[in-house]
Amino acid sequence: MSNKMWEVDPETKSKLLDIQKTNENNRCVDCGAPSPQWASPKFGIFFCLSCSGTHRSLGVHISFVRSITMDSFKVQEVERMAKGGNKPWKDFFDAHESNTLQGRTFDECTIQERYDSDAGEEWKERLTAKVEGKEYVPGTTSSGMAARAKPATSTSTSRSQTPLGASSAAPPSQKSQNEAYFARMGAENANRSDTLPPNQGGKYSGFGSEPMPSSSSNSNSIPGVDDFQKDP
Description:
By secondary structure, this protein is mainly α. It has a domain at 3-148: Orthogonal Bundle (Annexin V, domain 1), CATH 1.10.220. It is built from ten helices and three strands. The chain has helices at 9-19, 49-58, 75-83, 86-95, 97-100, 111-115, 118-131, 151-190, 215-221, 225-230, and strands at residues 38-40, 45-47, 66-67. Helix 3 packs across helix 7 (118-131). The longest helix has 40 residues, at 151-190.
């Protein structure tokens, strides 16, 4: 790796000491302790040893921790420290829409809430654009909190599908009940008399039986009262 990619430690320390004289960098950005000896080039901020441990626990994708007396800094990292600053970062956090909507401030939040946030992601993107001399273009910032909403959609969908599945299964069940009912009625009807009308206990038509003979055929097969009177 080229030596130009890294600042020499004595020169780096001198530059960082000068940067610490501005933007309230002479105190820990998170707890206010004096003479902070640690920094996060990603945010361009200074903090104390105690708070550096919490920053490390966030992961390097959120806050990359370096010692201002023992570690080497890339030229671009020193530039980020110069163009960042404790006070500008805190002011940006307090003014960010995601925080004003929730009514929360930098001092009220935990270190986790400060840096793993939409405000934190946007601050880092803006700082990168400033260091590279480019215009900031809003990107897709997604904090751990903002990305957690989607799974609920699939859950609600699956729940809403459950009653639909149950209702679609209902018609076959009802159909089976209807078939059993008519089968039972048909069996009972089969035991009824073929020679009597339904209202006197005779067989109904329509339950698997043959249609009742017409009135004219009945008069031919069964003698009526008039027939006996005419032909005793």
